[in-house]
Amino acid sequence: MRELGLIAMASFRETVRDKILYTLLFFVLLLLAFAKLLGEWSVFDREKVVANFSLGVMSLGGLAIAIFIGIGLIQKEIQRKTILTLLSKPIHRWQFLVGKYLGLLMVLVINIVVMTIALFLVLHFSGSPVNARLLLASYETFWEMAVITAVALVFSSFSTPVASALLTFGVFLASHLSGGILQYLETMKKASEKIPGATPVSPVMEYAAKTARLILPDLEVFNIRAAIVHGTPLPEHYLLWSTLHGLGWTVFLLTISSIWFSRRDFV
Amino acid sequence: MNLIEIRDFRKTYRLGIEHGLKAVEAVKSISLSVPEGALYGFIGPNGAGKTTTIKTLMGLLRPTSGTVNLMGGDPMNPQTRLQVGFQPEQPYFYDYLTGRELLVYYGKLSGISKVDLPKRIEESCAICKVEDSWLGRRLRTYSKGMSQRLGLVQAILNKPKLLVLDEPMSGLDPMGRRDVRLAMLDLHKQGTTIFYSSHVLSDVEEICTHAAMVVTGTLRKEGTLDEILGEASDPGGRAHLEDILAAEVAHA
What we know:
The complex is a heterodimer. By secondary structure, chain A is mostly helical.
């Protein structure tokens, strides 16, 4: 545990001093400020537009940080060869990997806090009600980022930075969209059965969507933006269930990357 | 007791997809033993397999075949590395940490207590001639020579029984080389066993008790320095490592 804490703290310190973090954060805050303008341009449901757009920006901002910093965290160590000195210390390789992950998680927490404060300010200055339930959306964004950072870590433990970034983004898209695609295919299937001569649903597409749903983490679990914005209640124990979902995937992904990492050579 | 024991070590790398996953044999056959108390020079031309051997010794690479033993155990086991210090070739550190932050970080990871750490940092810096004023600076402002010296400081922080150094003098000016050489002699005198790779054969000849010579991934000579030099000497006088290495390379 001591080693994990030390690596996490050093990784946190290194990341918060890196300019790329502030560049990303600046763009996210700029987009949040844009939400205010967007609200002013909207004819209907001004508050909902502002809140929905802002929460979406938070999620994408977190994704950018997870991809750009999460992947760089391990890859930079390998490319700059700092890993050679570190792994020669009496530590396990999994401690290095998990410690790095925890360090980045600390950075993500701070970013989400900053983005949430910015969101509250945007809502306040847009004249929209500042609802404490928005904190739940921030909480779920944290878990989404925790999982996507773990995905990034899996890819960066064996792949190049560019490939890792593309793969992580691919997983983000597929895991968000597979549920919707399946629903769409189901509707189309029912419709094609009822309408004679209609084009049947492609079995390949259905199989691909089902496989993606099965093997990828379901990031839509963490998307409670609609419920928060429209004020609809969440199902009972939803937060507990989504937390367990995030925790389970995080542990699983960290285990995979640790196994991979412990087998690789550092040339 | 031997602190390093390598038997029939062979290492093959597989190149990337862009090279058709071709296999390259970096080390063909190396067997050597480093006895406790030795100052051991590991020499050979570029591409001979020295760094590959050292990285395997530190658990950074896995041998393709053969056995590599460090302090009587498997190098992949962190416990085995508890009493070992390592400086890689041209060490790189974290841009945004200061020298002191890095030493505190590595020191704690090496198991040094919070109470002992400031004293250990001070002592190690004194041995390697690292000035206190450097430690407050961020590492990205360090010159190559400063990084090299700091690399040695972090390697000796835990008072290792065995010190493994990969080209510790590369990139240093003559004064820097002299300081590192003196630091190594000082540590050896204090009882540290040192295994280091080098291109500077005159240094090896001057300070080492033992040496091993590798050419194209194969061990050519091993033993005490007197044995190696004595074997090759002719009636005209004592041979030099440079001549022996040149002859071995010509035969390869």
